[in-house]
Amino acid sequence: MTLSSNGMLIRTGILAVIVIVVVAFFWFVVGPGPLDFAGGKTVAIAAYSGANPTGVPVEFAKDDLVTRGRYLTQAADCQACHTTEGGLPFAGGRAFKTPFGTLYSPNITPDRETGIGTWTDADLLQAIHQGISRDGTRLYPAFPYAAYTYLADADVLAIKAYLFSLPAVHNAPPANSLAFPYNQRWLMAIWSFLYNPDQRFQPNAERSPEWNRGAYLAEALGHCGDCHTPRNRLQALDNHRKFAGTVVQGWRAYNITGDQDTGVGAWNNAELTSYLSTGHATGRGTASGPMAEAVDLSLAHLSATDHAAIVAYLRSVPAIPSPDLPAPKAEPAPAAPKLGTPAGIDSRGQKLFAGACAGCHDWTGVSPLSPLATLTGGRAVNDPSAANVAQIILLGALRQTIQGVSIMPAFGSAYSDVEIAALANYVVARFGAKPSAITAEEIAELRRMQ
Amino acid sequence: MINLRINGDMRAVDVPGDMPLLWVLRDILGLTGTKFGCGIAQCGACTVHLDGIPVRSCLLPVGTIGERAITTIEGIAETPNGAKIQKAWLDLEVIQCGYCQSGQIMSATALLNVTPNPDDADIDAAMAGNICRCGTYVRIREAIKQAAKSV
User: Fold this and answer.
1) Residue B129 and residue A359: Cβ atoms within 8 Å?
2) Interface confidence (ipTM) of the complex
3) What pLDDT digit, counting tens, does each position of B98-142 carry?
4) Given an 8 Å threshold on Cβ–Cβ distance, is A356 in contact with B53?
5) Which residues lie in coiled coils (chain B) (predicted)?
6) How many domains does chain B have?
7) Do A360 and B59 make contact, defined as CB atoms within 8 angstroms?
8) DSSP-based three-state secondary structure for A9
9) CA atoms within 13 A on the CB side of A101
10) B66 interfaces chain A, CB cutoff of 8 Å
């Protein structure tokens, strides 16, 4: 073997290693973007043959800037994170407990001292597209700028016009309490380099206008993936498992891929539309916790055409099964309390259910009071982690739906961790397809997250 | 206007659809036999029947009832099991202060509709959602068994 061919071999080897490292870096560390699954060619909005997927739906197109901004602000669900429980809308201060410490959302009312009253258009565009605040500091990706980066400039400015039309609220939220090194905001520049594409939405030329509108709603505005897509170790969305479900703030955000048994593949379009627009679909369950909030503050206010667009888009997301979830049990439990309860379940669960729950939810799980209170067929009772059942027992529900007020009392301060675990396991065993074994320690952990 | 079938009569009420049935019964129609206890479906005092099924009227939006037949304590004596339960209640002097007893009688009647010969476990499960601060539970259990035996 000659010297030069040996050198060539080494060079080729080094090159191969570099290629493998780069490919592995992009595959494992960076991963695909939220829309990469769709394939095909993207084009500039002006070059797309169909209707412009950004902005407001056609029935709102003639409204003034503030009204259009209100629609887009609702579609982006700004209010949910920028409002405390019982606090003034958009005045900030909501706590986000992360494994790295607690973050507080800022005030985005037009108050000049504590809000964004002095921000220019360019300031807001920079914050929303790049995650950089007006003073140049980096924002944490709890603010979903890696999704909002896809928003069209005109839509960001319409949102700004709406926010600036609201009363200024003087409210300075608490300072974040993050541990080192997470309190080093400049590190987010590296995160952004890896995970924020900093590019506006581009329609997929091979998809329908409805699909593209749905993609804009779900990815740029609604940022569904921020709850429903698992995260990697750097807290970026792992789109290898897009919409396959994960746990957020102690609540399980379920699989919304097209998987038949564990996603929403078996739901028909009317059921999906009903769930998005009202937080309930007959036989499929009722939204609670963060999803109820997303429905009541955001999704319920969207137009029928936009609901249909989101459904069309969801349908195109590749099915990924959640191996720990069973197919939901559709049959109601027996009317007689003695029947239908599997052996080996802590009997305190049944006693608590009899006293506190059966009055509304019935022993069958089909509520005679309200379809929203029907347990049968819902995902939460068909989840052997019992996480969401435990959460709603602890926290209850107070929903201001567009149909009226809907309440469930909270039992967190009435019952001990042992009792709530027993009750949650009883409910899952009686109404679900697979029993659960949530422990008192896990209930205590859920309480700590509140 | 919302049309309701209450104790066999048709009643039309001009109320918002999200008003709880209990308010309609007590404040609009003057059927004050059904009591307000807790307002969050945790005490059972407001229990009425919809097509024979016990429901907590404090949390039942009146607009969702539709065609279903409402029976209140005022009408329960017209049903065979309701009459038996009321007689047993009187024979055994179940009632003490009485505030919860409309709800107790409605739940006990609903139990007999489904389970004609209930044992202690059936009674406990069906009646657990009805709270009595006077502690009449022992007499309630006895009266339900007596009513079940009566012809």
Assistant:
1) yes
2) 0.80
3) 999 999 999 999 999 999 999 999 999 999 999 999 999 999 999
4) no
5) none
6) 2
7) yes
8) helix
9) 14
10) no
